[in-house]
Structure formats: structure tokens, C-alpha cells
Amino acid sequence: MTALRETPLPAQKPRRRKRGLGAPGSGGGRDAWLLVLPALIPVLLFSVYPLVQGLLLGFTDARAGLDAVTSFNGVENYNRLAGNELFWASFRIGLIWAFGVTILQFFASLGLALLLNLDLKFRWLARTLALVPWAMPPVIIAIMWRLMLNPTYGPINESLRTLGLPGDTNWLGDFSTALPAVIVVGVWAGMPQTTITLLAGLQNVPTELHEAASIDGAGTFGRFWHVTLPSLRPIIIAITTLDLIWNFNSFALVYVLTAGGPGGQTMLPMLFAYNEAFRYGNFGYAAAMGNVMVIVIGIFLFFYLRSQARSRLS
Amino acid sequence: MTQAAMPTRLDAKPPTQKRLTSTTRGRRITRPLQYLALLGYIVFLGFPLLFLLSTAFKTPQELQSANPTFLPMAPNFDNFFNAIEKANLIQAAGNSFIVAVSTTIIVTLISLPAAYALARFKTKLRGIATGWILLSQVFPFILIIIPLFLVLKQIGLINSLVGLVLVYTVWSLPFALWMLQGYVAGIPVELEEAGATDGGSKLLILRVIVLPLLAPGLVATSLFTFISSWNEFFFALVLIQDPALQTLPLTLARFVGAEGQVQLGELAAASLLATIPSLVFFAIIQRRLTSGLLSGAVKG
Q: ipTM of this model?
């Protein structure tokens, strides 16, 4: 792009630059629709339609089964949900999980990205390792960590025993340790995207800014706080928002690690709704849970993004 | 090209003369700390992988021994052979492969024209598509899967690989579209305009000018779609009940419940085998993927 800009173009060229081939004048709308159509049809049929139907299902008493008759029951599902303590417990767990993983992931990834941005030896090794979880199926990440956390022969307890510490904790089976253990695995699994995005952001921070700041007498921390962080800000907002949504909606990792146990201590809302729908066949009720999840995510995103937009303006 | 560009930018990072002299003293203290932190990350990220690897090569006796060593005493491939024989691993891998390849082909074919349109035509469509791509990330899968389950049941595509391909197609389309339109936007329009001035037809221009330039991006997008489908678990769990149609993640997850001390090695071996395709493809595309993500984010 830059190379092209340097070559002097005829004066009238820049006005047309944004237009594509099939766009004579202001038209091109029909061509665009034709090109999009092959993607649009499956999306409408198998994504938009089910989504709308799913939202509506949340207001019905739909159940699994051949002869089940479905009828609208208004807000009855939500009245029932309001009194369903198990669901709210799961909701609380879901929020702890999503925020816990996202926040820890962010700090761990920021640290790693800052290190990878330095001229250190073995940087390549850390970078490669940081990418591997991205390629691994979540099911296999979960299997691997079940081996790691195995109470009798897992290497974590093994090393604790070697150090003379109590090494018989059943990490995934104990009420108090199950959720923290699962969160650690969540951080491990989700670090690649966050690290690479932050690293790419770091590499785009103009060096001149750093130089100007150090001429003004800013130390390492001062440069990080006043130069690096502000320039990273849009990327930080984007990646933490995405991480939070992904984590809140995640399923496979915890399903294989604990299946929601012990005693529901790691029962994320997605697992709860899955059981409700496909174990007990309460489709309508499960869809209502989905609706509540959407609303909570929506409200959170609204406030988070608005506060970020405001502080950027001020 | 990106491969060459990234390291040079990294190497350009070391600070200028001025900063070097002013911070040399601080550097002597911070450098070891930085290496210590880096080592911490390498252990945290790498140890579980090494442990999986070592478990896969251990004998059952060794796995049960009271004083396990980190490295296998007598490394052997028995676990791999046993795992393949048991638990219809081959069949599951076949299913996964069929589903992932079909999804990749369909997604690539339908997202290519759409991505071109989104990147080149500044119509309302662009706003709508971007909105949908973002929205598709927000909604919990549970909302989509229940009605989808009902619809697929009606048309007889429950418990079928065709149904799974259909679901994977719409599920991986947003991201593929997002990536691909970023790559299209990276190709200067001037090249197409020059082609038009030379009298080339639209199709010819697309084939001769756009497609070759887009090829690396197209490969990256397709491989990423393959990886996503190969790794996917939730939709398969809901839609596939027939053991003969199970994909790899399903088979492995079922393996987990039945694990005893003896089977751990086989479980680890099967897990390794199932990860290899994703890992290999990912190694091919990772540079492009990371740069593509960013260009999509910046230009989108």
C-alpha cells in the first residue's frame, strides 16, 4: 500500500480508489447481493432462523418427544427461573469463571507479550508454545489437564509431595479446588489469541513515542504506563470483550474436565442449559436460560463498551 | 512475505543508542528477572504438553509404579497401537476428516464471492454483515442448537454427517468471511482498475489478478476452517448419537469416563494422534493467521 501511494497517481484517481470492479457509478448493489447470496442462504436458514426461533422458544413450554404440543406460555419460564436456585448458582459460577479466566488471561498474556516483544533468547520457544493450545481440540486440552491434575499419579501432586507439601489434593474432585483448577486450565487454553493479539498491538506502537518519552525522562514503567498502554487500549478492549464472551459461552473444556461436578461446583450456565435441554428434554425452559444469558452479556457489553468509549473521549 | 516481515520488525525493536546508555544499569537487574519470567511461562505452557507426550510412551506397569519418572523408562509405541485398535479410533478419525474437509470446501466456495463483495462494494450489506459477524459471537450456542436440532430432526438430518457439515458451515462462516474480506481489502483496487483499462473482462481480472494474490489468504482461511471443524465438540455432542458416526473429539471424550490406570497411556496416545492434523495445519498458517486477524480488525 505504501509503495503504491508513493508513486504519483493521476489527479482524478484517488476519488475512484475505493470502488471495486463491478461498481460503475454508485451502483453495484445488485452485483454485491448476487455475490453474497450463496453465503446468505445457508446463514438465513441455519443461523438466523434458528436464532429467532430459539429466542421465541424461550417463551414456550416446548419439550422433547414426538407428540409434544408446544404452546406459548409468556413469562412463565422466567418466573420459574427466578425461583430456580440451582440456575442462579450456576450463573454465579459462570460469572466467576468468565471474569476469572478473562482477567487472569489478560494479565498473563500481557506479561508474555511484553517479554516476547523484547530481544530475549528462547523467545521463539515461548512463542511457539504459546500458540499450541490454539490448535488443540478443547477436548484434548481437557484430557491432558485431567492427567496433570490426577490426584494419585498426576505430576502436580507428585511435585508437591517431592517438596514435602501435602500432595493428595483431588483438584477436580474437591469442592474448594475444582473451580480454581478449572479456571487455571481455562487460562492455559485461551492464552494464545490474547497473547498474539496483544503482541501484534505492541509491535504497532510507534518507536518514536517511546523515544520521545525517554528523552522527557520517563522510566521503563513510566513509558509503559503513558505510552504503551494508551496505544494498546483499543486492542485491549477488543480482546477482553471477545474473551469474556467466549469464556461465558464455553462448553467443551469444562464438560470433559468435570462435567459440572463436584456437586455442581463447576456447572457453567452452558452446561446447565445443555443438561436441561438434552438430558431432561425441557427445550423451552433451556431456551429461556439462553435468553437470560444473552441479556446479561448484552447489558454487560453495553456498559463496558460505553464506559470505554467515554473515557476515550474525555 | 509476512514471514520475512515479522522478524525484521521484531529485530528493529531494540532501542536506539540513547536508551541503551541511559538504561544499561537497570538492564543488568531486569534482564535476569525477564529470563526468569520467560522460563516460568515456558514451563507453564510446555510442561503439560511434555507430560502428555511422555505418558503416551509409557507402559501400563510404569504408569502404575509408585515412583514414576518424568521420562518413560522404556519408550514404546504400544499405547498407540492399542488405542488405534480399540475405541473405533480409525472410524472416528475418518468421520472427522470427512466432516472437516466437506465443511472447508463449502465454506471456502461460498465465502470467497461474499468476502469479495464485502471488501469491495461499499453498500449497506457491509454494515449488516459486520453486525451479523459480531452478533454471531455473542449468542450462546444453546439458543441456536435447540431449534437447529428440531429443524434438522424434521428434515431427517439428525444423527447424520451431512447435518453436521451443514451446522459447521454456518458456524465457521462468520470467521472465515471476516478473515477473507481482510485479505481482499489488502489487494490494491488499482491493480483491478489497471486490468480493466487493459480491456480484461471481470472474470478474467478476478482469475488472473485477484485470485493469485488472494491464494495465501485463501489457504490460511481454509486451513483455519478445517481446524475449527476438526476440533469442534458441542454441536457434534448434540447432533450425533450413533457410535459409528462419532467424530474424534466425541470418541475421546467418551474414552475419558472409562479411564482406569491402565488406559491412561492409550488415552494420551489417542489424544496426541488426534491433535496432529490440527497442529500441522496450524504450523503452516500461524503467521498468516495472526497477521490476518489484525488486518481484518484494522480494516474492518
A: 0.83
What is the number of other CB atoms lying within 10 angstroms of the CB of residue A254?
A: 27
Instruction: Specify the CATH number for the domain of residue A100.
Output: 1.10.3720.10
Summarize pLDDT for A113-154 with one digit per residue, the tens.
999 988 888 888 888 888 899 889 999 999 999 989 988 878
Verify whether the Cβ–Cβ distance A129 to B274 is below 8 Å. Answer: no
Residue A234 lies in a domain: yes
- Is the CB of B113 less than 8 angstroms away from the CB of A249? no
CA gap A112, A110 in Å, rounded: 5
Contacts for B80 with CB less than 8 Å, ≥ 6 apart:
B56, B269, B272, B273
- The answer, as to whether pTM is greater than 0.80, is yes
> Quick one: B79-299 is in which CATH superfamily?
MetI-like (1.10.3720.10)
Q: Nearest-CA distance from A116 to chain B in Å?
A: 8
| Burial of B192 from C-beta contacts in 10 A (0-12 / 13-18 / 19+) | buried
Q: Mutate one of B13, B31, B41, B166 to test the A interface: name it (highest A CB count within 10 A).
A: B41
Q: Mind listing the pLDDT tens digit for each residue in B56-113?
A: 898 877 777 766 777 777 788 888 888 888 767 889 999 999 999 999 999 999 999 9
> What pLDDT does B86 receive?
74
**How far, in whole angstroms, is CA A93 from its chain's centroid?**
16
Domain limits, chain B:
79-299
Mutate to test the interface with B, among A2, A13, A21 (most CBs of B within 10 A): A21
A-B contacts (CB, under 8 Å): 308
**Closest-CA distance of chain A to residue B189, Å:** 6
Domain containing residue A247: 84-267
In A, minimum Cα distance to B8 occurs at: A203
